[in-house]
Design goal:
The chain is of the alpha/beta class and 355 residues long. It has 2 domains: 13-208 and 217-230, Rossmann fold; 231-335, Magnesium chelatase subunit I, C-Terminal domain (Helicase, Ruva Protein, domain 3), CATH 1.10.8. 44% of the residues lie in helices and 14% in strands. It has helices spanning 2-16, 18-30, 37-49, 63-73, 89-93, 130-142, 177-180, 194-203, 218-228, 235-250, 261-277, 285-296, 304-308, 313-324, and strands at 53-56, 78-82, 94-100, 106-112, 119-123, 144-147, 150-153, 159-164, 185-188, 255-257, 301-302. The strands form 4 sheets. It has a 5-stranded parallel sheet. A two-stranded antiparallel ribbon has the order 3-4. A hairpin with a 2-residue loop joins strand 6 and strand 7 (150-153). Helix 10 crosses helix 11 (261-277), helix 10 (235-250) crosses helix 14 and helix 11 (261-277) crosses helix 12. The chain is globular and about 75 Å long.
Length: 355
């Protein structure tokens, strides 16, 4: 009983300090990663939800630097997998090897693969064969790996960030819809603006590259993951989520195949995580509108007519949000400058906890 009270008290303290924790965290990331605040926020949101992220961007925009920096700031074990057509499933999950003991007896020993980390970067995942891509499915969904007759649990937290290059499509294997649906978010990274690129060359043409100096420990991160699911959301906003996802199945003008119930769960969790990051103890309509884009853009398939007309998934999602809320304006999507100041944070108060 005393242990539960102590644990509840520690979680309550973490909740009250969440705003300060995240502000300090993003400032630390900003020492290494220039700009890309929205992408970093979305990656952290996915980690808080216990989900995974698919990043699509052109080469050289700092995807590897971004995720490795986040892993260092979170004090988590990081590994990188460079996906190629000849990559085998055992290269990811690990394999049993024969080991000879001092007594001369030979026996099998499991050699863990790079998936046994807290944060795994699967670079250019669409270059791996479907057989190798499927090796990640169990790890992503069940947080475990099965080799032979043995099952090995992965350490918590576990997070996969997969990248793909939208330019070079030769020699690639597009991810099937079943695997795309396993990713909580799909993030699009664009080129930096003039001022950001100027800052990049100023930082990375010096004798020493910038480094991370402090971060969030694993226990605090696990507490924040638990707190994310406790952020309250009104029944009205839950129904709004259901209407948005249902419209993806009914809008036959632009969308041929809509999103699954996994999208409804993901949108609510992502909105809760965003509210926690912004220092609020409730989910707002803005949280849902902003997170609808990364949650849905990889879960809908456009019709041939929509693709021929040049409509993008994000534009189709905007039309859905306008149907749910006639007063919706596209500017609500996070397109504000990265250096724009956010409104003052409200004092955090977690329902159900007492000081």
């Amino acid at each position: 009983m005393y242990e539960k009270d102590s644990e509840a008290g520690q979680i309550s303290i973490t909740y009250e300090n969440a705003g300060r924790i995240f502000n300090s965290f993003f400032e630390e990331i900003g020492r290494v990663v220039v700009g890309q605040r929205k992408a970093v926020e979305h990656i952290v949101i996915s980690i808080l939800c216990g989900g995974h992220v698919l990043v699509e961007s052109n080469p050289g925009l700092g995807k590897t630097l971004m995720i490795s920096t986040i892993s260092k700031a979170l004090n988590l074990k990081f590994s990188r997998i460079q996906c190629t057509p000849d990559l085998m499933p055992a290269d990811i999950t690990g394999t049993n090897i024969i080991e000879e003991r001092e007594s001369g007896k030979k026996e099998f020993r499991f050699e863990a693969g790079p998936v046994f980390s807290n944060i795994v970067l699967a670079d250019e995942i669409n270059r791996a064969s479907p057989k190798t891509q499927s090796a990640l499915l169990e790890a992503m969904q069940e947080k475990q790996v099965t080799v032979g007759n043995d099952t090995y649990l992965l350490d918590k937290p576990f997070f996969i960030l997969a990248t793909q290059n939208p330019i070079e499509m030769e020699g690639t294997y597009p991810l099937p819809e079943a695997q795309l649906d396993r990713f909580l978010l799909k993030i699009l990274i664009d080129y930096p603006n003039f001022e950001e690129e100027k800052e990049i060359i100023n930082r990375y043409t010096k004798a020493e590259a910038p480094k991370i100096r402090r971060g969030i420990d694993k226990s605090t991160l696990l507490e924040l993951q638990a707190l994310t699911r406790q952020v309250p959301i009104s029944e009205e906003l839950k129904e709004r989520v259901l209407k948005i996802v249902a419209l993806t199945r009914k809008d036959k003008q632009n969308i041929e195949y809509g999103a699954s119930p996994r999208a409804s769960i993901g949108l609510i969790l992502a909105a809760k995580a965003r509210a926690l990051i912004k220092g609020r103890n409730f989910v707002s309509q803005e949280d849902l509108d902003v997170m609808a884009y990364p949650v849905l853009r990889h879960r809908i398939i456009l019709t041939f007519e929509a693709e021929r007309s040049g409509i993008t998934p994000d534009e189709a999602i905007t039309e859905l949000l306008k149907q749910v809320n006639p007063g919706y304006k596209e500017e609500k999507n996070e397109t504000a400058p990265e250096n724009q100041k956010e409104p003052a944070k409200k004092k955090l108060k977690l329902p159900g906890f007492r000081k």
